[in-house]
Amino acid sequence: MSGKLKTAVLGATGYSGLELTRILMRHAKLDKPVLLRRPSQDGGPTDLAEVFPALCGNGGYPLHSLSWPSLKQQGVQLLFLATPHEISRSLVPEAIAQGLRVIDLSGAWRLKNEQHRAIYGFEDSDALSAAELTDRAVYGLPELNADRIANANLVANPGCYATSVILSLAPLVKAGVVDRSRGIIADSKSGVSGAGKEPTSKTHFVSVADKFSAYSVFNHRHLGVIVEQLGLDGPEVTFTPHLLPIPRGILSTVYVQLNRTMTPLEVESCYRNFYSGKRWVRIFATPKLPQVQFSLHTNYCDLGFCLADDGRRLVLISCIDNLLKGAAGQAVQNMNLMYGWGEEEGLQ
Amino acid sequence: MSGKLKTAVLGATGYSGLELTRILMRHAKLDKPVLLRRPSQDGGPTDLAEVFPALCGNGGYPLHSLSWPSLKQQGVQLLFLATPHEISRSLVPEAIAQGLRVIDLSGAWRLKNEQHRAIYGFEDSDALSAAELTDRAVYGLPELNADRIANANLVANPGCYATSVILSLAPLVKAGVVDRSRGIIADSKSGVSGAGKEPTSKTHFVSVADKFSAYSVFNHRHLGVIVEQLGLDGPEVTFTPHLLPIPRGILSTVYVQLNRTMTPLEVESCYRNFYSGKRWVRIFATPKLPQVQFSLHTNYCDLGFCLADDGRRLVLISCIDNLLKGAAGQAVQNMNLMYGWGEEEGLQ
Amino acid sequence: MSGKLKTAVLGATGYSGLELTRILMRHAKLDKPVLLRRPSQDGGPTDLAEVFPALCGNGGYPLHSLSWPSLKQQGVQLLFLATPHEISRSLVPEAIAQGLRVIDLSGAWRLKNEQHRAIYGFEDSDALSAAELTDRAVYGLPELNADRIANANLVANPGCYATSVILSLAPLVKAGVVDRSRGIIADSKSGVSGAGKEPTSKTHFVSVADKFSAYSVFNHRHLGVIVEQLGLDGPEVTFTPHLLPIPRGILSTVYVQLNRTMTPLEVESCYRNFYSGKRWVRIFATPKLPQVQFSLHTNYCDLGFCLADDGRRLVLISCIDNLLKGAAGQAVQNMNLMYGWGEEEGLQ
Amino acid sequence: MSGKLKTAVLGATGYSGLELTRILMRHAKLDKPVLLRRPSQDGGPTDLAEVFPALCGNGGYPLHSLSWPSLKQQGVQLLFLATPHEISRSLVPEAIAQGLRVIDLSGAWRLKNEQHRAIYGFEDSDALSAAELTDRAVYGLPELNADRIANANLVANPGCYATSVILSLAPLVKAGVVDRSRGIIADSKSGVSGAGKEPTSKTHFVSVADKFSAYSVFNHRHLGVIVEQLGLDGPEVTFTPHLLPIPRGILSTVYVQLNRTMTPLEVESCYRNFYSGKRWVRIFATPKLPQVQFSLHTNYCDLGFCLADDGRRLVLISCIDNLLKGAAGQAVQNMNLMYGWGEEEGLQ
Asked: Considering the entire predicted model, what is its pTM?
C-alpha cells in the first residue's frame, strides 16, 4: 500500500481527458491512475499512445474496460468522467452506488433548474435516482463553492465558457453593484479544442483556419449555468460564443453597467477582496488586460477590466485555458479540495 | 487619348494600397494608374514587386516620386491616398489646390466634431484651409451618403471597423427602434492586416499566432466616427476591438435593445428596406449568420441577426473584408459614384 | 440553343469540385454546368450552398442525381469527375459508353504500368473495358501532352504533387542532363485541402495547427505517375510528402545532380526553351525563388532554381495551388485544349 | 551562501533568452539568475515582463546593466549569452578574462575552419585573443562532445538547424555506412521563432500565415558547422532551410544513400547503440516517424527513419523544439555537464 489515492479516468482519449491524465500522472498525492475506455470504445485503442502519438515511447498508458469489481479490487476511490453528458448521466448513478466519489466533467449534473436542463434532453431511466443526484451534485467552481465541494460525493465540473464568464461577474453581482435592468452581455471566444476531438466538417482545418464565426446565439447550454450560479434571471444575460482559429484558450469580453458610479480603484478592490486567498485567479491592475495566451497551459483564470469615464460602463476581460481551468485543471483543483490538499497541488 | 480616367495612388506599398492598385489595374473605365511613393520613401523601392514579390514577373509596377506638375502633365484627375493620416492631413490641401479630386483612405478627414478629432492630435500648419476641408469632406460610406459622394472633391474613405459597425446599426437607428438609453455594444474582431504593414512586436507572427486579445477599450479612433455617422451620443456606444490571428477580415458582434417588441420578420424587413438597391450589402435571413470568411476577397458587407424570444434583445453580426469593403474596395465604390459609373464596376 | 458547351460535374461537394464549379460558372464558352451528387450522396444536400455556406445568397447551385438519360437530354457533352478513384473507376466506362468525353480528377486512369497501379487495388468488374480505357486515357498534363489531350475522350487529370514535381523535372530530364545514377529527391509540402474534405482525426484543426509531419515515405501513390511521365525507373526517385499547416498550396523542393557542369544561365535557358509558349508556367530568374503564396488562387506553376558553385548540384523549387493547377484549374486547361480554345480561357 | 550556483543571462529579452530564463528560474541547483540587458538596450525595459507581458504578476524579472564588477560582487560564475553573434564576439573575451565560464548561444564561436567562418564577417579588434578562444571553444552538442564540454570554459551552443541535422546523421556517418559520394541532402523546416524576435517584414504575421518558402539555399551559416562536426567535405552536404508558418519547432528530412545494403533493424541498432544512455535523444522504431509537435516544449531530439526496399536509400526524420534542444534547453544540458550534474536536471 502506497498510502496514495487511487483514481480512475473514464474518457482519457478526449482532449480534456488527456490533459487530466497528464496532471494525475505527476500529482504527488496519487497513485498512477487507471485509464478506462468508454463502453462504446471496446475493441478500440488499448493504449492512449495510439490516440495521441506524442505519448509514444513514454512507457505506456494502457486503456482498460470499465468494470466496477475491477475498480474496487484496485482500490479506486475517485472516478473522473471526461465523457459526453449522456454517458455521464447513465454511469454516475452506478458509480455513486458503488461507493465511489465522482468528478464529472460533462454537463450532466450542473443544472438544478429543470427548465434550463431541458436543453440537454435527458431521458433518465431511473428518474428518482437521477433527480436525487441532481440535487446532491455540487457545482465544482472552487472560488464560489469550496466548502460544499470538500464534502461532495458528486462534483459537476464546470464548462469552460461558464467558468470564464461566472468568475468575471461574480464579485460585482454578489456585491450588488450591477444594474441588472440594463442587461449583461458576455461575448466569448473559444479555441477549437473546446468543440471536442470528434472530427466534423466544422473542426476540419480548412473550415477553421483564417476564419471566425459566432454560433448558438441565445441558445448555448452554458447560459443556464451562468444564470443559476450568479442568481440572475435568464433574460438578464446575453451570451454569444464564437469559434477562434486557435487550438486552445478562451477570452470572454463581458459588458455590465454599474448601478452607481465607481472608480477603477473601487472596482479593483471589489475583485481583490472577493478573490482574496484564491490561488488560481489573477487580477490585472487596470489598464493592463489579460490576453488569451497569458493563461494557456496554466490553471489560472485571468481577470481584467476597463471602466469608462462615466464610471458606469464596465468592460471585463476574462481568460482561461479551456482544457485546464475550463476542464481538467479545475477537476484536479476540485479533487484537491475533496481530499483536503492545497489547491495548487499537481497544478504548478 | 484613351477617354479613360487617369488616377494616381500614393501609398501603394501598404496592404490597402496594394489591393487598391490591383483593382484599379483591371478597372475597365481607367487608364493604368500612376503609383507614387510616399515622400519619406524616396530612395526606397522603385517597383511595387520589390515590396510584394508575388507581383514579380507581371510586367512592372513602377513607383514614382510625387510631383504635382508631373501628375498634371500625365492628366491625372483623381488621387487616392493610402497613407498615414499625418501625411494625408498635409498633402490633401495641396492636392485639392492643384485641382485634383481626392479619395483619402486615412482617418484625416473623417471627423467633423473637434472633440472626436482630438484623438488624432492634428497640428495643421494651415489651419484655415484644413478647417475648410474638414467641413467640405464627405464621409465616403456609399450606402449612407451616395448623393454627396457623387459631387465631392474630397472623400474621406471610412475605416474598416467603422464600416462594419455603422452598416449593421444604421437601419435600426435611423428607424428609431433602438432603445438608446440601454446602450449599444459593438464587440469587433479584426484580422492582422488591419494593423498595417509596418512590422512591430505586436504584428510579429509569434506574437499573433494562437493568440487573441482586446485593445483600445473605450479609446479607439473609430468610435467618434461611429457616433457621428449614426447621430448618437458618445456614451451610448461601447466599442471594443480585438485582434484575430487571421490575415484579414472583420466580424463585429453588435448588441442592441429595441424600444418596442419586434418579430424577426420585422427586423429583417427593416434591413431589406434600408438597403434596397444597395449592391454591396447582403442580408442573411435569420437564423443564418454571416461568417468572416464569406465576405473575404469581396466588397460585400454581410449582415445577419438573432432576436431573443423577448423580441427586444438583438444580436447583430456584420462581416467585411477589412482591405476591400473596409478600405480599397469601398474607395473604388466611391470613385464609381463620383464618376457616375455603376457601383459594381471593377469590383466583381 | 446557346451554342455553348454543356458540361456536368460529379463531385462538386469536394474542395476540387467546388473550385471547378466556380471556374465553369464564369467560363465564357460554357453553359451553366449541371452539378451532380455522387450516388452515395442521394438523400444528401440538394444545393451546393448547404455544403459551402459562403455560396448562400448567390442564386442557387442545385445538385442533381446522376442519370445518363437526363444528361443526354440536357445536351451534356463533357463530364468532369471530382470523385474518389473507386467511383471514377466504375463510372467512367459507363460515361464513355454513353458517348461523353470525360475529364477525371481522380487517380483512376493515370497509370499505365500495372505494377504502379497495384497501390490503388482496383477490382474492375469489367476488366476488358477498364484495360482498354487505361490504354486510351491520356495523362492530362498540358505542358507535356497537349496534342494527345486535344483528341482524347478520357483525360486523367494529374494529381497535385505529381504536377509540381513533374513540371520541375521535365526540362532537365528530357534534355538528358540529369545524372540519374545519383538519384532524384522530391521533398514536397502540401496544404491540408490536399487531404480532402472528409473530416478525420488527421485533418482536425487541433491535429494540424502548429504542427508538421512527413507521411507515406517511399509509399505514395503519386510516385508511380512521376516515374512514368518522366520515363525514369522507380528507385531513381525518392518522394517524401509532408503536411503543411496551411489551407492550400504545394511547394516541392527537388534535388538533382547534373551529369555535366552547367551555368545558371544554361539551366534557365533549358527551362525557358522547354516551356516556351506555355501560358501557365512561370520561370523565376535565379536567385529569385517562388514561394507557395505567389501561385495561390492562380493556375500557375512557378519554377525556380539554385545551382551550387560546383555547377552540378541543383535545387529546384516548384509551387502550385493544389486545387487549381493541381486539380480544377488544370482540368479546365485540359478542357480548353480538348475544344480548341485558348489555354487561359476562364482561368484569368 | 546558498551553496547554489549563481548564473547570469545576457539577452533574456529574446525568445531563446526567455526560455533559458524560465528554465534557470526553476533549476534546483541554481540561485535566481541575474538578468542583463544588452549594452544597446540601456534605457530600455527594466523588467522582463515589459517585453513578455505573460510574465506580469509573477513577481518581477528585473533587468540590469552589464557590469563586470557587479557580476563578480554577486558571485556569478557562469554567464549565458543569448545575443547576436557580433555582441558575443566582442563580449566573450572580456568575460573569460574576468574568470567567468561562458555558454554562448550565438554563432560566434562554433566554427574552427576559417573559410566557414567567413560567412559571419567577424572583425575582431583583438585578433589574437579571438583566435585563441576560437581554438579553445567547445562545440556544445552533448551527445557528441560530453567530455570536452565538462571541462570547457567556453561552450559554443549549437544552432537549431545544426542540432537537428547533425544528430540525425552522426550515427551513420561515424559508422562509415554513408555513401558520401552520392551526396547528403538535408531539407529542414523551421518555425518562425527561429528567425528571432526582431520584427521584420519577413516575420510579420501577414507575411507568414498561410505561406511557406525556402531561403538561403547553398548559403546558410549552419552548413559549415554541420560539415565540421561530421567530418565531411562542404559539397557533400546540400542544406535547404524553409520557413514554416508555426511559432516553434524544426523538422529536418535528411536523405542519404548507404554504401552497403542494410536492414531496418541494422539501421535502428546503429542509432540505438550510438545514443545508448543519452537522455535527450528518442529513437522511433520504424515505421513510426517523429512529428514536429512531439518534441515541442521538451528538450528531446526525436529521430526516426524509413529505409527503401533496396536497403540503400534512407530517409531520416529529425525533430526538435528550436528554442529548447535547439537553444536554451541544450544550453542548460551543457551547464549540467560542466558542473557534473545529471543531464536531465531542470529540463523535465
From this structure: 0.95
